[in-house]
Amino acid sequence: KKSVLHVDRYMKVGEVDERIYGSFIEHLGRAVYEGIYQPDSPLSDENGFRRDVMGLVRELGVPVVRYPGGNFVSGYHWEDGTGPKELRPQRIEPAWNVIETNQFGLNEFMDWTSLAGTAPMMAVNLGTRGPEDAKNILEYCNLKGGSYYSDLRIAHGYQKPHDIKLWCLGNEMDGPWQMGHKTAYEYGRIAAETGRVMKMIDPDVELVACGSSSLYMDTFGDWEDTVLSECYDQADYISLHQYYDNCADDTPGFLANTVAMDQFISSVISICDAVKAKKRKKKSIHLSFDEWNVWYHSKEQDKKLEPWCKAPHQLEDIYNFEDALLVAGMLITMLRHADRVRIACLAQLVNVIAPIMTSDTGAWKQTIYYPFALISKYGRGTVLHTVADTPVYECRYGDAPYLDSVCVLNENEASETAELTIFAVNKDLKESMELSCDLRQFEGYQVKEHIVLTHPDLKAANTQSAPDLVKPSAGGNAKIEGGILSAILCDKSFHVIRLA
Ligand code: AHR
């Protein structure tokens, strides 16, 4: 097969907002306890933070981490996780049917984010709570002192405000599984009033309103329309959530989900802009794709869990090579919409549907770690319009291209250097693909590196005893001759072609 990429250095989609490489830590399973926090472990530091996990998080490159949920946040009392640990209550946690010990909370999370080199994206509870508690937590986090909650933070040992600027107005409020589930109108109103109070306290906060929990919700479309009609002035972003599975063991169909994701993003942009037009607004609403991943491997196992235990092995998907290909394709799809998708969170970060896994004796990288880390590292700068002439195959959404691709130009004015990176997935399971691209606009550019992630076995997975089964290598064959880039992309593979 052959594909031709057309790229023009002046045809820009938009700047990559680094927060597109965000992730997510929920009080769920072993994400917090035994994941990022394990005070009795020799692998942890004096705060109880797992050092090995911290190292892998830093290497992954996640500029923002959403917290504390997820479904969890819709019943959460944030105060329970503050103050002296011995006084913190143990509570039932109905979202995931477990006991929450509250030994890790808001202040520990803030300590962890600064050590992990990331920033918080905090969610407020709009399920069992509302504007009053959003007001209180914001006062606790962002005010200097001299008021009840800001003084309480100081009394808890945090003199300086946390100054958290990015907040989610609840989580998946369209979902009937959500504590405090609401109709679109009910949610739109509470989001508007919560947002109004929050911006009175700190006008610089950015707020994410809940969109649909998936493209396949019956309320999709009407939900976004009604919610934004109610809270357009207060919201800065609308969320999208989507998980894909390969339960049918149909890999071409599974990899074609990038088409569905692209349709989801385009549809939400259209609705945001329709509401903008109806309201004759200047401001545009941007997209926060704050839960995305593959999720299905652990679902049968999770049905067997006993209720009301602590930090069980829950949602512990073991990812394989084909999952890594889809994760690469999903990130490429979001980058192609960099003008509107400003925030995205790989759900989640550690142990729970995660790129990083832990045991009591170590931490390791799942297959999906690699495409994420590579794209986060090299996908900075400006996304260029990338048109691919590529063969297609039929899938349930219509035609799926065999090639998912995007080009990102990173120009550094200070050092007067520039780098063009092509990210590409060849979804063909049997045939390699000849890729070419006219780069004569990029005079003098040569191939700096061509990284490849491939494996003969689609189901190959990394484990603690074999952590390197699936990992990238620098073995690509891209070359430039007369300004024309050419490369052979082997069957079922992800590529990072770096040019400078
Ligand atoms: O990420 C796991 C769960 O998926 C989250 O708690 C919820 O928001 C979504 O349904």
From TrEMBL:
Keyword Cytoplasm (UniProt): no
Residue ranges of domain Alpha-L-arabinofuranosidase C-terminal in the record: 290-493
Enzyme class: hydrolase
InterPro entries, per database record: Alpha-L-AF_C (IPR010720), ASD1_cat (IPR055235), GH (IPR017853), Glyco_hydro_b (IPR013780)
The EC number(s) this enzyme carries: 3.2.1.55
Keywords: Carbohydrate metabolism, Glycosidase, Hydrolase
Pathway(s) annotated for this protein in UniProt: Glycan metabolism
SUPFAM superfamilies per record: (Trans)glycosidases, Glycosyl hydrolase domain
GO molecular function, one term: alpha-L-arabinofuranosidase activity
Pfam families linked: Alpha-L-AF_C, ASD1_dom
Quaternary structure, from the entry: Homohexamer; trimer of dimers.
Family, similarity comment: Belongs to the glycosyl hydrolase 51 family.
The protein's name: non-reducing end alpha-L-arabinofuranosidase
Organism annotation: Diplocloster agilis
